[in-house]
């Protein structure tokens, strides 16, 4: 795959409706401001600014509801200062100072999150991790790449490739997200069926706790040394600690790549084929199944047919065996062979998000909701979610595709849109989420597969985790008793 065309920087999700420096905060609630002395103290620790435009830009991410607010020159919330530490020691000193002075700290990096996780709800400090970039070491024999947390996706992968290795983590947002953000949100790349989600890629972590303590986790291929602390930090969305350094597992660069496309009579047959493929031991890097509507939109289907795109890479004998197994299973399920050019088209357009911005500017509600569930539940979950979403006034479409497979189930990724009058925009957006997410949870899905919880999904954490949320709250209280780290997120 080609990485050369990507920018590696924070990218504005959409234009502001006025001067960014004059944008206002949309969310209400108590916000911690900083005294001049506090700003000076932070400035003595690391690069710190109170520049209005910089602060406003740290007040939003790619949460779709806030994109429409941006067009009205509003962001969810505005931090009082933006701090950019350059090393772990600066992060440690900054957190120790903020902890002592009860200053909220919201870590952020690419700000590509889609659930408002990086919004500084309580004001205070936006801790911008993007000054900590670079590959620090590569262990070619073991296949381990050490990256600073603020390193953007293409730089991580290129750092590995220089040593004949690949990480294989390609989220759609690869160009605008960082390794620390992937770990903090339990992200998934588009090749995850071969390389795994980020939680399977992490070998070790360096994390700074709220009081400034630096902790190292992991560091071995496997262990029985009590609960895995890396896994506690994975997905903590900046609420339990600041990730400063990540050691990632890397694979040999692939020798070959193979592609295939198949057309099924309907989505349910496609689900069954994916289940059989994965459970047979064939794990092609990409196994993406689109429902009738998405197939029609992207692959020229008839509105009912489901299209399966397959791509694998690795050692020739293994990849050929995988693709042959995929072919046999698809044929046994009554599929027809599709045009392999569809996979080529997908590889070219898979990171294009222009449709989101264009529809937002036209006043459409548009968003996505990804969940994971067991194979036996997928058909009923799709039915429940789409029925619930389409019952919301002004809803126009609710479609889905399967994007990541596992031995016992898969991730189903819904895309929905509505066309309400301007005054009903926010109500419609929230109603679609309420309807879709509640239907998914009640039908047996989890709350999120890889986008995380952030701010927008916090309200569903009680239903999703039950008593488990109390365990998470107890951990939060133990690690961050003053609640300075990203307060108001993850349902905490
Ligand atoms: C167009 C588009 C496509 C996307 N596609 C995918 C996809 O395919 N797969 C996927 O998994 N996600 C995807 N996402 C979501 C998003 O890119 C991921 O959640 C990503 O991991 C966020 O990384 P970031 O560096 O942008 O983090 P940010 O958005 O800046 O932060 C996200 C959260 O992580 C925390 N955080 C960030 N850095 C650190 C750190 N160093 N230490 C502690 N906490 C930290 C923040 O506090 C916040 O809670 C997509 C987003 C967009 C806009």
List the helices and strands and how they pair.
Blueprint: E1 24-25, H1 36-45, E2 47-49, H2 52-57, H3 64-71, E3 74-75, E4 81-84, H4 88-100, E5 105-108, E6 125-128, E7 135-139, E8 144-148, H5 153-161, E9 165-166, H6 179-185, H7 192-195, H8 198-201, E10 202-208, E11 214-218, H9 229-233, E12 242-249, E13 251-252, E14 256-264, H10 267-279, E15 286-290, H11 292-299, E16 306-314, H12 316-332, E17 336-337, H13 341-349, H14 354-361, E18 365-374, H15 378-390, E19 395-405, E20 409-418, H16 425-442, H17 461-465, H18 468-479
Parallel strand pairs: 1-3, 4-6, 5-6
Antiparallel strand pairs: 2-4, 7-8, 8-12, 9-13, 10-11, 10-12, 14-16, 14-17, 15-16, 15-19, 18-20, 19-20
Helix pairs in contact: 3-14, 10-12, 15-16
The site of flavin-adenine dinucleotide has 36 residues, from β5, α6 and β12.
Major β-sheet strand ordering:
17-14-16-15-19-20-18
Low-pLDDT residue spans: 1-8
Q: What distance lies between the first and last C-alpha atoms, to the nearest angstrom?
A: 39 Å
CATH architecture of the largest domain: 2-Layer Sandwich
Query: Would you state the CATH class of the largest domain?
Result: Alpha Beta
The amount of beta strand, in percent, is: 15-25%
- Rounded to the nearest angstrom, the radius of gyration is 22 Å
User: Helix proportion of residues, in percent?
Assistant: 25-40%
Number of strands: 20
Q: Which sheet architecture does the biggest sheet show?
A: 7 strands, antiparallel
Query: What's the CATH topology name of the largest domain?
Result: Uridine Diphospho-n-acetylenolpyruvylglucosamine Reductase, domain 3
The kinds of small molecule bound in this structure are: flavin-adenine dinucleotide
| Number of helices, where a helix is a run of at least 4 consecutive DSSP H or I residues | 18
Helix and strand composition category: alpha+beta
The shape, in one word, is globular
Mean of residue pLDDT?
96
Number of domains: 4
